[in-house]
């Protein structure tokens, strides 16, 4: 195994049922010798910053399913097209994203 960080992406489904099916089926599947980690994306919430009265954004893990999945442990050759092709078999996707550098290389997260 290399010390290079592995990629992350996000997949947004049109329904919770479709997201649930994809999460249950794709979690721990192998892709190019990398075991995928698929989980529900945490929901961003505004909470007060302790002692300041200011608000800051935190990302607590959401206890119930939603339509947005995070896909982790992707190898560097994974791309948006692969995410689209792989996850669209579970339902209608409204968004697929890997964050990229200006030169087009993956930033290794989504």
Characterization of this structure:
It contains 2 helices and 8 strands; from the N terminus they run E-H-E-E-E-E-E-E-H-E. It has 110 residues and is α+β, with helices and mostly antiparallel strands. Strand 5 (45-48) and strand 6 (55-58) form a beta hairpin. It is globular, with a radius of gyration of 15 Å. It starts with 6 loop residues before the first strand and ends in a 13-residue tail after the last strand.
Summarize the structure.
The protein has helices at 16-26, 80-87; strands at residues 7-13, 30-31, 34-35, 37-40, 45-48, 55-58, 68-74, 93-97. With 110 residues, it is of the alpha+beta class.
Total strands: the figure is: 8
Mean pLDDT, nearest integer? 78
Element-level helix/strand string:
EHEEEEEEHE
Note the overall shape. globular
- Main β-sheet, spatial strand arrangement: 4-7-1-8
Could you give a short account of the major beta sheet?
A: 4 strands, antiparallel
Secondary structure category:
alpha+beta
Q: Give the count of helical stretches.
A: 2
Which SSEs are present, and which pair or pack?
Elements: E1 7-13, H1 16-26, E2 30-31, E3 34-35, E4 37-40, E5 45-48, E6 55-58, E7 68-74, H2 80-87, E8 93-97
Antiparallel strand pairs: 1-7, 1-8, 2-3, 4-7, 5-6
Keywords for this entry:
110 residues, alpha+beta, 4-stranded antiparallel β-sheet, two-stranded antiparallel ribbon, 2 helices, 8 strands, 17% helix, 32% strand, disordered N terminus
């Amino acid at each position: 195994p290399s010390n290079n960080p592995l990629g992350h992406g996000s997949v947004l489904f049109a329904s919770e049922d479709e997201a649930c099916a994809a999460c249950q089926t794709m979690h721990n599947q192998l892709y190019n010798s990398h075991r995928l980690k698929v989980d529900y994306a945490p929901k961003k919430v505004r909470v007060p910053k302790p002692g300041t009265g200011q608000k800051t954004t935190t990302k607590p893990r959401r206890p119930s399913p939603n339509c947005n999945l995070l896909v982790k442990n992707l190898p560097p050759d994974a791309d948006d097209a692969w995410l689209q092709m792989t996850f669209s078999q579970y339902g209608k996707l409204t968004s697929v994203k890997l964050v990229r550098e200006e030169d087009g290389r993956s930033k290794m997260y989504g």
